[in-house]
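Fig. S4 source data, part A: sequence.
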Amino acid sequence: MSEPLSNSEQRTDRGRTWFSPRRLAQRQYFIVLAAFILLGVLGGYAYYALIGCNTGGCAITSNPYMSMAWGGLLGYLLPDFFVKKAES
């Protein structure tokens, strides 16, 4: 019978802890980053089109370009929770 694993040993997967972001090569990182930005821009436009602001008083959602820019910005910031660029 084997000995039970400690908490730190149970939570690792190939040297990564369960909460650490995956390290990717530079090219793969930029592909993932571009995909997140594209999804953010599309999500920003969808938010403008589906929810939006009809009165024109909302600074972000009354203009599709502002909505898409904010979505793209969030798409740029979000991947750092999931992936990091590997050190060369």
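Fig. S4 source data, part B ends here. The mean pLDDT is 82.
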